[in-house]
Structure to design on (365 residues):
């Protein structure tokens, strides 16, 4: 069996695709990847050792209507190129994860009779996935809320959002050893995503004295590369304080940091939430307010409603409520235990296998 996976634009589309690729490969499936030549997917897929095929694709700027002509031209050109490629590689199934490149790849699948599976990571379905879902054999969702965009509800499979095996590679002991944090200490992980989150960083800096007053509390704070100097200056940590408040602009050891954490303060992007859920980490979520259709808030609300986390709006990070929620999260062991138990009920750790099952069923295998 051969599967073509496609997704581009952001790591949120690509990481679940790579998680699925790992499971399919374990099942003996030959996996190929279709993305854009300039997108981050080209590097990430190559690093994963998966054969990569590039197709041009672009969106359009609503403020400049003439850009739609270029977008439509590239989609048609790449659809034809993908059909020629399919005649060579003969895929049994195509899986689309979102991003403009999925449109020509998905269209090539439906026009050549190859079963198409769509996977949506967010609670609000993206434009490419919404378009492709009309002719897909199966539409796999992370959140029930996204089902409103699917006309044929019989296609829907609730799989959750797959996470890569590397998320589970580190143990708590290994993470604590890497970070130099005692096993009996409490650890709070703070991250604003790959680009950081200025407002979230400012909110945490304002809590410095209150949090460090707890002698057994360690904070690991991933600021984002552009924010590291600003946060370092704002915190003005002494050498003793820096032993318990570690700052990183970026880390490629996030799996180890998450394994070591007792709690986390984070944005609510699809990948971040999936990893938090998979590791069942008690969380305070601060959704990025400018995400398309405010989907991070919708993502977070579903997770909070399941009892897995607290949530606060970005606009309220400077209010007393933010500090109260952070302190409650680190101080109340019962709250953390309840959140962890609820997160395990989400079965995110099984999402890659569930999606693989749906893909193989669509392929008739």
């Amino acid at each position: 069996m051969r599967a073509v996976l496609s997704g581009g634009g952001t790591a949120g589309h690509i990481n679940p695709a790579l998680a699925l690729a790992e499971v399919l490969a374990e099942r003996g499936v030959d996996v190929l990847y279709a993305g854009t030549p300039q997108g981050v997917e080209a590097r990430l897929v190559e690093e994963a050792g998966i054969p990569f095929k590039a197709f041009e694709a672009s969106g359009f700027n609503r403020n400049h209507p003439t850009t739609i002509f270029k977008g439509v031209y590239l989609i048609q050109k790449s659809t034809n190129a993908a059909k020629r490629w399919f005649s060579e590689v003969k895929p049994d199934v195509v899986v689309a994860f979102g991003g403009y490149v999925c449109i020509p790849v998905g269209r090539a699948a439906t026009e050549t009779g190859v079963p198409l599976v769509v996977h949506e990571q967010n609670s609000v379905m993206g434009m490419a996935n919404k378009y492709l879902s009309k002719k897909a054999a199966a539409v796999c969702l992370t959140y029930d809320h996204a089902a409103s965009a699917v006309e044929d509800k019989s296609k829907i499979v609730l799989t959750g959002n797959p996470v890569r095996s590397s998320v589970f590679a580190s143990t708590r002991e290994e993470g604590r050893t890497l970070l130099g944090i005692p096993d009996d200490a409490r650890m709070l992980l703070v991250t604003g995503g790959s680009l950081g989150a200025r407002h979230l960083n400012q909110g945490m800096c304002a809590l410095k004295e209150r949090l460090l007053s707890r002698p057994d509390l360690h904070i690991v704070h991933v600021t984002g590369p552009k924010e590291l100097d600003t946060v370092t200056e704002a915190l003005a940590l002494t050498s003793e304080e820096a032993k318990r408040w570690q700052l990183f602009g970026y880390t490629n050891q996030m799996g180890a940091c998450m394994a070591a954490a007792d709690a986390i303060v984070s944005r609510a992007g699809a990948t971040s939430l999936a990893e938090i859920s998979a590791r069942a980490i008690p969380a305070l979520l601060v959704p990025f307010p400018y995400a398309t259709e405010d989907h991070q808030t919708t993502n977070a609300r579903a997770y909070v409603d399941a009892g897995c986390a607290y949530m606060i709006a970005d606009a309220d990070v400077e209010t007393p409520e933010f500090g109260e929620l952070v302190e409650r999260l680190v101080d109340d062991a019962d709250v953390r235990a309840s959140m962890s138990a609820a997160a395990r009920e989400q079965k995110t750790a099984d999402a890659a296998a569930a999606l693989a099952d749906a893909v193989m069923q669509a392929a008739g295998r």
Observations:
- The CA atoms of residues 61 and 67 lie 6 Å apart.
